[in-house]
Amino acid sequence: MRIKLVCVLVFLLSMGSLFAEPQGESPYAPSVRYWSNEQDSTLTAQPMIPLRSEPKLLVLLYHNVVFGRTGNVYNRDLYNFENDLLFVKRNYTLTNFKQLLTSSNDTKTDKAIITFDDGDLSLYAIVFPLFKAYELEATIFLVPSYIGEVGYMSWDQVREMSDYRTGDGRKLFYFESHSQTHRMMGDLGEEEIRWELQQSKQIIEEEVGEPVTVLALPFGSGAGDERIISAAYDLGYQAIRTSKPEARLLTKINPWMIGAMNVENYSSDVLVQNVLTLMGKRK
Q1: What is the pTM for the complete model shown?
Q2: Helix H segments across 164-221?
Q3: What domain range includes position 231?
């Protein structure tokens, strides 16, 4: 019995030497994923954006971007997110709030602004390299009290994104206010409203070194509230983004009531249908 056992062990050891891992190489297979930072011609190409007789503004509202499937309605998986970007780039001229508020808006194409609320860490880990590769603009509304907490960006990461410029010197990432503590603005008193707007604006400006001129209302609470609009105006804000899903004509934008479509956890096909309905291109 012992002789048979020894023979078996010798045989296994000899077979093992035949299939041993080569020295210096990892025993694990290389990781595989469908996304990389390398440019893809489908997103880097400049498409012929459709001309419109009465162009409108579309503001898309995202929160987090994730690699895989998710049950959280605020998470957008990367596969559908990239398809969202393809659709937007083919049909809209991408812009930002600063340009929107200072330009004549005499363009003949629909415009779109891509926005993110809160300052989730995925904006630095996923959105930053993706938008750099494709040179896409984004406006990120920060809650200063969240910065540095688990799952959120640090101020160093925020500054790195804000300071980034393309090869031709174009800025891609704009940081604005989403209040100081993310409370429902419509439920607050006037002093609290003013503190939320003033504190967040001051901190972001000190950290980023650029003026904060746009406020995004947490939960969309307080849209159209004269107390909030008055406080924002007095503090130097120039616009308020709400969470009301609407797309207005570029010639009739109310800067204190700019709507946005919240993108939820559904397929890009659903997003396209929702956008077409919002733009009045589908009943």
Answers
A1: 0.84
A2: 190-208
A3: 54-278
